[in-house]
Design goal:
Distance between the termini: 21 Å
Order of helices and strands: HHHH
Number of helices: 4
Length: 115
């Protein structure tokens, strides 16, 4: 899954916020997915951290929360990519893969919005 980031223009910000909101709606209602037992704690913490960043971004109409939110998102990117790679290894974790691909897409979009 490749995140499509809208090109520069007057509607770019609104397009990114809308896409993040759609991805969040698809992510938010579900329970935490099945993931490898040994990685469950780290992945749950990553999900929790990303959820806070996304909720703050959406509740502030696309403005990252004050402080080091961008740094937190940048720190999450390699962890999200590693989670996607880990979960892609087994069809058993298909739902976890969907969830973490969505989180990765949201992180990329939010960071691109601030660029």
């Amino acid at each position: 899954m490749t995140t499509l980031i809208p090109p520069p223009g007057p509607d770019r910000h609104r397009a990114i916020v809308s896409e993040v909101a759609l991805l969040w709606a698809a992510h938010h209602p579900g329970p935490f997915p099945d993931v490898p037992f040994d990685d469950r704690h780290d992945l749950a913490y990553l999900d929790f951290t990303m959820s806070g960043c996304v909720m703050a971004y959406l509740s502030n109409d696309g403005v990252p929360s004050p402080g080091d939110a961008e740094e937190v998102l940048r720190d999450c990117l390699p962890k999200l990519r590693a989670a996607v790679a880990l979960l892609a290894r087994s069809a058993e974790y298909r739902e976890g893969l969907r969830v973490f691909r969505g989180l990765l897409a949201m992180a990329e979009l939010i960071l691109a919005d601030g660029a």
